[in-house]
Amino acid sequence: MKPGVPGSTAHVMLMAASHQRLVGRPLLARSPGESDEALAGRLYTAHFGLLSHDDRPDPCFTYANLVAQQLFERSWDEMVGMPSRRSAEAPERAERERFLARVADKGYVDDYTGIRVAKSGRRFRILRATIWNLVDASGRRIGQAASIPAWEPLG
């Protein structure tokens, strides 16, 4: 990726390829001749939130684009490595876990709505998010990713 853009181009391309394969459409259309690095840079600055977490028993974020960082009021360094469950309030966590299990079984879900909390405690509702499994070249699930096209503040 271009200088100043955190994350690995390979990881972003894995998110994009898994999304294309499972959901059947690109996260962003690739321009003719566009390199992986350029597409990864455009996804980092896209108008929608883009996140991923690993597949540990207590998954941790592995990627957060600029919109996701702004939504959660956290820098790259604060987001990446943070347990993803901390993005939801305690009462919402059980529902979040049930939903992620549904995604794991189906491969993706494109109608997620849920309440999340920013670092300041500000609550917001994610609307119409797509969540999909990240699958490596050997077919092993290594995590999940989410695109967040819309959200609304709460209270």
Describe the structure.
The chain has a domain at 47-153: PAS domain (Beta-Lactamase). It is an alpha+beta fold and 155 residues long. Helix 1 crosses helix 2. The chain is 34% helix and 29% strand. The chain is globular and about 45 Å long. The termini are far apart. It has 5 helices and 6 strands.
Radius of gyration over C-alpha positions, nearest whole angstrom? 15 Å
What's the N-to-C terminus distance? Answer: 38 Å
CATH superfamily of the domain at 47-153: PAS domain
CATH hierarchy, class of the domain at 47-153: Alpha Beta
CATH architecture of the domain at 47-153: 2-Layer Sandwich
Percent of residues in β-strands: 25-35%
Q: How would you sum up the global shape?
A: globular
Compute the number of strand runs: 6
Computed structural class: alpha+beta
Give the uncertain stretches in residue-range form: none
Helix content: 25-40%
For the largest beta-sheet, the strand count, sense and barrel status come to: 6 strands, antiparallel
**Mean pLDDT reading:** 90
Oligomer: single chain
Order of helices and strands: HHEEHHHEEEE
CATH topology of the domain at 47-153: Beta-Lactamase
Count helical runs: 5
